[in-house]
Amino acid sequence: MAINITSSWLDEFPARVAELDRAHLRRQRRVVVPESGARLSIDGHSMLAFCSNDYLGLAAHPALVQAACAGAQAYGVGAGASPLVSGHSAANEALERELAAFVGLPRALYFYAGYTTNIGIVPALVGTGDAIFSDALNHACLIDGARLSRAKIHRYAHADLDALERELAQSDAPRKLVISDAVFSMDGDIADISSLVAVCERHDALLLLDDAHGFGVLGPQGRGTLAAAGLHGAKASRRVLYMATLGKAAGVAGAFVAGDEALIEWLLQKTRSYIFATAAPALLASALRASLELIEQDEWRRTHLQKLIARLRSGLTAGLKDSHWQLPPSQTAIQPLLIGRNDEALAVMEALRARGIWVPAIRPPTVAEGTARLRIALSAAHTEADIDLLVEALTALAKHTQAQRQTEPTY
Fold first, then answer.
1. Active-site position among 154, 176, 248, 304
2. Which listed residue (61, 88, 176, 213) is catalytic?
3. Are residues 76 and 139 in the same domain?
């Protein structure tokens, strides 16, 4: 008997997309082509870009391009299978050894993507009956990994280590996993690594630290937030499982996790996003090995970046003193400019775009309601003149916006 379906839930999607438009929450992809320095061609228009996580300006470095080409010539452009079948090339093996040595931990495991690293390793570590303690501002990949694990999730207020300690003390779970960003991706602040490790020591917990935005940028020779906290090499704690992405400051793609030998072996055996996914192509590992050398040697990139951060903050602090926009504290390449309303953040983004400057507006659900912002990402590829141009444009727009707000009717 035929069933007459007059309507379907699939018919809801046009209205649901329209609702995103009304709430100023619809996202758009942009077609980009790299240009010189910190410039991108975006939808066919040359723009000064403050949107990339290429913090050291390495993504287009000739040494990385040459290494990738050499890797492609030696290995081809595909891995062919998962790492546990035939996808683990000699280049991938060498990269893992070099990554472990670079961050001062016994062993490293190289993944094809950062997001899939965290959503895979968290369920491999804990499960039903165990407990996860998650910072409220953690990245989505940590949150999703926690949900997939089926462990009980305790969400503590951002950077509130007293609350974390209370939660840990009250838990009777056999396995306790604390998960935290090292540099928080939307606010740019840095976790108190030493205190997190100490709390985990007191409560027999393991700390999974996501250093996506600190690796290559922070610490001596860019060795990351663990090294910046003095927990490098022999001083590293077995309580720490260190994860970092390789598509940001390293300028390529993928991610790795490093830690105790037995812990990494367990992850190799049990992480589904590692076992059942095709390995990263060897040409990427070849490029990353070249990137590691530059990260270690080119201290001027981090020095220059720190000067740009200070210049931007000084300029905006002066230029926005009469504005309702806020510039929260951040010593990192991530500089959030809080605007508030979704529509206003989009309007400022478009006004900058009209001036040839591209800074993305970040809105809920990526950030909390009422905290829409511009996420200004700085790179060693920027110049001081680039920073001055952005500060001048934002100062002018802030004055214009403030004047508009003062003329709005009140009820």
1. 248
2. 213
3. yes
Do 119 and 141 touch, CB atoms closer than 8 A?
yes
CA atoms within 13 A on the CB side of 154: 22
Residue 408 structure tokens: 């709005």
Q: Among residues 281, 297, 313, which one ends one of the domains?
A: 297
Query: Model confidence over 33-80: pLDDT tens digits?
Result: 888 889 999 899 999 999 999 999 999 999 999 999 999 999 999 999
Rounded Cα gap, residues 149 and 178, in angstroms: 13
Tokens 């699939």: give the residue. Answer: 10
Catalytic residue among 134, 149, 185, 330: 185
What is the C-alpha separation between 353 and 357, in angstroms, rounded? 5
Active site residue 324: no
pLDDT tens-digit profile of 90-123?
A: 999 999 999 999 999 999 999 999 999 999 999 9
| Same-domain status, 250 and 399 | no
Q: In 4-17, which positions are buried (b, 16+ CB within 10 angstroms) versus exposed (e)?
A: eeeeeeeeeeeeee
Tokens for 275, please give them.
């076992």
State whether 67 and 174 are in the same domain. yes
Element at 346 (helix H, strand E): helix 342-354
The answer to whether residues 289 and 356 belong to one domain is no
22 within some domain? no
Q: Is 82 contained in some domain?
A: yes
How many domains does the structure of the chain reveal?
Answer: 2
Is 111 within 8 Å of 257 (Cβ atoms)? yes
Based on the residue annotation, tell me whether 248 is a catalytic residue of this protein. yes
Q: Which two tokens stand for residue 125?
A: 């570590």
Do 359 and 248 fall within a single domain?
no
Residue 6 lies in a domain: no
Does residue 23 form part of some domain? no
* Contact predicate 333/305, CB 8 Å: yes
Please give the structure tokens belonging to residue 307: 């000067």
Q: Is 321 a catalytic residue?
A: no
With a threshold of 0.70, does the pTM exceed it? Answer: yes
Q: What CATH number is associated with residue 217?
A: 3.40.640.10
Amino acid occupying residue 174: P
**375 shares a domain with 267:** no
Structure tokens at 19: 């609702």
Q: How far from 271 is each of 78, 266, 295, CA to CA, in Å?
A: 22, 8, 29
Neighbour-count burial of 311, counting CB atoms closer than 10 A to its CB (0-12 exposed, 13-18 middle, 19+ buried): middle
Range of the domain at 194: 62-297
Q: For residue 37, give both structure tokens.
A: 């320095």
